[in-house]
Specification:
The complex is a heterodimer. By secondary structure, chain A is of the alpha/beta class. Chain A is 36% helix and 21% strand. In chain B, helix 3 crosses helix 9 and helix 3 packs across helix 10. Classes of the chains: A alpha/beta, B mainly alpha. The structure holds adenosine-5'-triphosphate and magnesium ion (MG).
């Protein structure tokens, strides 16, 4: 793949995400996240697992302040973005690519336009309005579409694609941002097992290629173990396990998800 | 296990039934009160068929020669009033609609202000708007255009605001997360989703406005209505019939046109 960010990334200091004592309470006195801290650097892919309602989505949304954290700090490649607002926040968000469970494409726009939406943080609104994106962006979008095997779909409307294809468009859109970190909130939960594996492969390979950390919320523990180099187990808003997938035992899983009958 | 008691099920709870009965009673009362205040005079009612027959006999034969001489230009003016008026309404309704969509503008006071503007536009009848603008601009098509514009803001703005509020928040979140500025989020997130509804509303309103602008001429706001008014005042009944027929034809054509286009865009 020949996206610009690749050549840049080797020259720049390592891309990283650092979360420091992050807490979040939607309702006062009822914290959903309690003092979460961890750091991910370079091309590591990290899975975040945990039972439903434990705050995985909240954690990932606190990173780019789609949900404002209650306390703690988030650093992207060393820059503290926790207290940014307005224009500065937008500048910081460009560095954070995000992939969603429901893809969140603009259904009525073409595949190409959806991919180019990843440039909206860089391109002035009037250019977006007239669809006069810089040629460099268009070239990058085409080569990205080519590499994910969707080149021939570029003019098709996003709602005419299958789930797996849509998710790939969603990933391409995130990569267009030239992000310093890639977040994915259950990117495979709406997909069949085979497509899920393909999407995980794509995410992990992009993280390697662009040398950026990848943070994935995922319910499928096997998939997590297979594709990531580190697993963070959340339960009741705290980190219960943080280590390589090989050391994640059934005991840990019992601790994370509770009960044990389901493990058989 | 002990035998479970008989479990009753009814479509409505007791209080719901009470409320429904009260509503029914209210309707009955309203009907009887309004029947009394209308004061139908039987003599006039018996007379009506003769009057209608008389009217028709005076309208016949139709004076078709009058169409090119006196109607055509006025009819074109009516269509122009309808079209320009609708465009004017759209220009004003877009910002007001955005202001009224509570998923875009998070200040309840501004939402409320927008609702106030939209409601006042709709609650004033088009003839009243026409009288108002005839007083301001003098009689003629300008007053008619502005009248149609102001009258339509409420309709267009309300439906546009609703279309915006029904937008899927997912893509909006995705664009926001990518650091896009507000206007870009609107252009690429809200607008593509609301656009079909918007153009549908635009066409629908234009169709309504063709009908409305035929009427507002009666109070001097330009177009075919003014010609109709003159013919009525001079008792030229065979002209009146041609005017009414041409209004009928144009309204039907407008409706067919709008239906055809709506099918293509939605
Ligand atoms: N906007 C909100 N307001 C109040 N409480 C919320 C809000 N969003 C989430 N919560 C609560 O925070 C907790 C964590 O939610 P979150 O969506 O982060 O869980 P999750 O781990 O992503 O679950 P899942 O695996 O089902 O996606 C839940 O108990 C939820 O009810
Ligand atoms: Mg979640």
């Amino acid at each position: 793949m020949t996206v610009e960010a690749q050549s840049d990334s080797s020259a720049q200091p390592q891309r990283s995400i650092c979360i420091e004592n992050l807490s979040k309470e939607y309702v006062r006195g009822k914290p959903v996240l309690k003092n979460i801290s961890f750091t991910v650097q370079g091309h590591s892919s990290v899975a975040i697992i945990g039972p439903s309602g434990t705050g995985k989505s909240t954690l990932i949304r606190c990173v780019n302040k789609l949900i404002p954290p209650s306390s703690g700090n988030v650093y992207i490649s060393g820059e503290n973005i926790t207290h940014l607002t307005g224009r500065n926040l937008r500048m910081a968000r460009r560095k954070i690519g995000m992939v969603f469970q429901e893809f969140n494409l603009v259904e009525r726009l073409s595949v190409m336009e959806n991919v180019l939406c990843g440039r909206l943080g860089y391109v002035p609104s009037w250019r977006a309005w007239l669809r006069k994106y810089p040629q460099k962006d268009i070239d990058n979008a085409f080569s990205l579409l080519d590499s994910i095997g969707l080149l021939e779909f570029s003019r098709q409307r996003a709602d005419s694609l299958s789930g797996g294809q849509r998710q790939r468009v969603g990933i391409a859109r995130a990569i267009m941002q030239e992000p310093h970190v890639l977040l994915a909130d259950e990117p495979t939960s709406s997909l069949d097992p085979k497509t899920s594996v393909e999407i995980m492969e794509l995410l992990v390979s992009l993280s390697r290629e662009h040398n950026i950390p990848l943070l994935i919320n995922i319910h499928d523990v096997e998939l997590a173990k297979r594709f990531t180099v580190r697993v963070i187990g959340l339960s009741m808003g705290g980190i219960i396990y943080d280590g390589p997938p090989s050391e994640l035992t059934n005991d840990h899983l019992k601790q994370i998800y509770g009960g044990e009958n389901w493990l058989q | 296990m002990s035998p479970s008691p008989l479990r009753k099920w009814e479509r409505f709870t007791f209080s719901e039934r009470l409320a429904r009965f009260a509503v029914f009673l209210g309707f009955a009362a309203a009907l009887s009160i309004s029947l009394r205040s209308v004061q139908i005079i039987p003599e006039f009612l018996y007379d009506a068929p003769t009057q209608v027959a008389d009217l028709f006999s005076r309208m016949w034969p139709m004076d078709f020669a009058y169409y090119p001489a006196g109607i055509h230009d006025a009819m074109m003016e009516t269509l122009h009033i309808a079209t320009l008026g609708t465009l004017l309404a759209i220009v004003m309704a877009i910002p007001i609609g955005i202001l009224g969509a509570n998923n875009i503008v998070h200040f309840p006071l501004l939402n409320w202000l927008s609702k106030l503007i939209l409601v006042s536009s709709r609650s004033v009848n088009s003839l009243v708007w026409a009288l108002l603008f005839v007083a301001v601009f003098g009689p003629g098509p300008l007053a008619g255009t502005v009248c149609i514009g102001f009258r339509s803001i409420g309709f267009v703005g309300k439906l546009f605001a609703e279309a915006l509020e029904e937008v899927d928040p997912g893509p909006i979140e995705a664009l926001t997360a990518s650091g896009a500025p507000w206007f870009s989020v609107f252009l690429k997130g809200y607008w593509p989703q609301a656009a079909p509804a918007f153009w549908g509303v635009f066409l629908f309103r234009w169709d309504i406005n063709v009908r409305e602008s035929a009427v507002i001429g009666l109070v001097g706001a330009g177009g075919i209505g003014m010609v109709l008014d003159t013919a009525l005042n001079l008792f030229f009944w065979n002209r009146v019939s041609v005017i009414l027929l041409s209004i009928f034809v144009v309204v039907i054509l407008a409706e067919l046109f709008v239906t055809a286009i709506r099918k293509r865009i939605i």
